[in-house]
Amino acid sequence: MQCWNSTSDLKKHVFNSLKKAHISPSRYKGQNFLINANVVNFQINQANINQSDIVMEIGGGNGTLTLCLAKLAKKLYVIESDKRLVNYLEELMSSFSNVEILFGDAVKVPFPNFNKCVSNLPYQISSPITFKLLENQFDSAILMYQKEFAQRLIAKPGTKNYSRISVMIKLLASCKYLRTVKRGSYYPQPKIDSALVRIEPTKEKKVEDIKDFEIFNTVLFTLKKKLVLSALNGFLKRKAKKTTLHTHTILDSLPYAERRIFTLTLEEIIEIYSHLKKQTGEEVWQNIMYSRSTM
Ligand code: SAM
Fold it and tell me: Residue of the nearest CA to atom 1 in ligand 1?
């Protein structure tokens, strides 16, 4: 679908809208607006919206994506935290009966039911919004991130970008890097490039308690360059002071003991996690993981 015919049409829309809404874009609010028609058309096409879709857009801004999505979807919810842009969007979209604009911080407002999400995210909320999204059931999300964040999402074990977020995303979703978007595609131009990513939640439940696993994974990745055994030995010894923990027994037969943490796959981390949880027992595990200092 060719939603915007040309970049010059889109630029006119962006500059007029900012003038009309009395907006001088704020970096602090993540207000970088897309001015490249090819990028917008690409993002909309990737979302593959049809007349049965209920779509959520986070950070509607001046309506560049909103105008396209409203024509394609059965229902469109748009969340925007800048009241001036909410007012602007309400006027811009007034002829569409399938659009609802929600005013508020997308990290805090309850999400409506949706099956697709399309957003040029305000970058400062990339991480909390991604995890909030993944608490919901949906088909797919086509999201714009800062390029470095996108690289962390898809990073493979053993590479420099591999982090706790790479592991958590792998646990909860499949993630595909679609394309890099150069900084010049925005007004005002940000300091770094962006990237479009497709996220699809996985149906399979790989661990029973996701929050518990997330805490363990965070503990591991604060020591990501260390060997598994030495990192966990140090961690458990510090915790042993407050419990009746027998560190030796627990670490005996620890899987992947001699590997560096940042080389472990999700499945290997789950194995280590399950082993430790089983060896310590539920009560001691709670003590170790949830006592005041996690490290
Ligand atoms: N959709 C437009 C586009 O594609 O050009 C604007 C995207 S701009 C990167 C991000 C938008 O999110 C801005 O309009 C900004 O006001 C809004 N925003 C910033 N923080 C937000 C938050 N916490 N919740 C909802 N919207 C937010």
Answer: 60
The gap from C-alpha 238 to its chain's centroid, in whole angstroms, comes to 33
Better-scored residue on pLDDT, 272 or 236: 272
Q: How far apart are CA 124 and CA 50, in angstroms?
A: 30
Tell me the C-alpha to C-alpha distance, in Å, between residue 216 and each of 15, 174, 209, 220, 289: 47, 21, 11, 6, 7
Distance of alpha carbon 120 from the chain centroid: 12
- Cβ distance 254 to 272 under 8 Å? yes
User: 229-244, pLDDT tens digit by residue?
Assistant: 999 988 888 876 666 6
Q: Give me the sheet containing 99-103, strands edge to edge.
A: 99-103, 75-80, 54-58, 116-120, 140-146, 194-201, 173-181
- Give residue limits of the domains in the chain: 7-201, 210-289
Question: Is it the case that residue 245 has pLDDT exceeding 70?
Answer: no
CA of 232 to the centre of ligand 1 (A): 41
For the stretch 7-44, pLDDT in tens is 999 999 999 999 999 999 999 999 999 999 999 999 99
Nearest-atom index, ligand 1, CA of 109: 24
126-133 and 164-172 helices, crossing angle to 10°: 20
3-state DSSP call for residue 140? strand
* Structural element, H or E, at residue 135: none
Mean pLDDT to the nearest integer, 103-126: 97
**Was domain 7-201 assigned CATH 3.20.20.300?**
no
Measured distance between the N- and C-terminal CA atoms of the chain, rounded to whole angstroms: 51
Could you identify the atom of ligand 1 that is nearest to the CA of residue 186? 5
Residue 282 has pLDDT above 90, yes or no: no
Pick from 11, 82, 92, 109 the residue to mutate for probing ligand 1's pocket: most ligand atoms within 8 Å of its CB. 82
How far is it, in rounded angstroms, from Cα 80 to Cα 255?
A: 47
Q: Where are the alpha helices (DSSP H) in 34-81?
A: 37-47, 64-72
